[in-house]
């Protein structure tokens, strides 16, 4: 009978245990999550059933909201297509990347998150609208119609980043997008539009196109489930700017800059949580890169949402910023937003509000214009749409006045708040190298005093 050396046996056992531990650690190692971005085109936050508008049918996105975190105060970097998308794809504000205007691409010297994710081993894909031609060419996969193609072609041994850039609910509209269509009698008419049959039909078509987007989101979510990818996939839904209606898209009012944001991340994001804290879509690229284990790009301005998704109750931001530049016309403006206040600084106040072409030709605006011409437009709409010059500075208490109808900037009781917020806005403009002049009280060495009147356009 062979005698086993106890010392050798002990060594063999320890080696076996070490190998088992190492293999266990490897098997338990966190696989980088897949990332799916469901991105609608021109949709205000209010216009999902899970945000309270029960007149629009969005069952798939409502389910997504219940499975993750729903943000009620998410803001775009700009209420314009190309600038908003460029900001998400680079993590930098539009006026720093050369993409501050409609149809302007991010300058090639600014790296994108697509490049960063690919270097980390991600397979990247984009469907339909990216609206940044240079970055669009960086995706490994480009698709248009068949949503299964990406999932069939993706390498099964790589994590992936999928950008689903729908063109819904962008104009133009026509009947037949979904069946049954939405009933114009049941739509919710915002207080900044005229309640006419033409406006109601316009909104009903808008709802139809939102529902069509929801249906395609449902197809993608079903593909994730079918391929067993749900457990390790971050799903994010949002929009590039607000609804394509007057006083919304292309403006810095809530209907233009406040967009839906839903984030589902099994095991991370608390299912069913509703956040009323302010966040920026600039936070998304930072969050995605951190989740993927990718170093952040230079000078990204957002913050990671991961601690917040995991249950941290500390607000992500005290202030967020947004900007409007050229979009069919030149109407430069900047805004700083807190949980309570919004300050808008207008840099072309001598003209009445200007409109993007899709809003100008919309039935909703035609209704406003027709009532204006016969003197039957509501006084508040008459004041806002057609008065010139406009205020240089606008200040709104978003808690008391969510519709932003009562400008407090000229009220002496709010003078200090105006000065404070102009200083905050100006510091951001200076730090990010804005091409517009910051409010005067943001210049180095300036002290608050009564000589400078912030509402005087001649002293900007």
What does this structure look like?
The chain is of the alpha/beta class and 460 residues long. Helix content is 33%, strand content 17%. The chain has helices at 6-28, 59-67, 81-90, 94-97, 113-119, 133-136, 148-153, 197-226, 254-257, 283-292, 306-309, 357-360, 363-373, 379-386, 415-431; strands spanning 34-40, 69-75, 123-128, 141-143, 160-165, 233-239, 258-264, 273-280, 320-326, 330-337, 341-346, 393-397. It has an 8-stranded mixed beta sheet, sandwiched between helices. A hairpin with a 3-residue loop joins strand 9 (320-326) and strand 10. The longest helix is centred in the middle third of the chain and has 30 residues, at 197-226. The chain starts with 5 loop residues before the first helix and ends in a 29-residue tail after the last helix.
How is this structure best summarized?
The protein is α/β, with parallel strands linked by helices and 460 residues long. It is built from 15 helices and twelve strands. It has an eight-stranded mixed sheet with strand order 4-3-5-1-6-7-2-8, with helices on both faces.
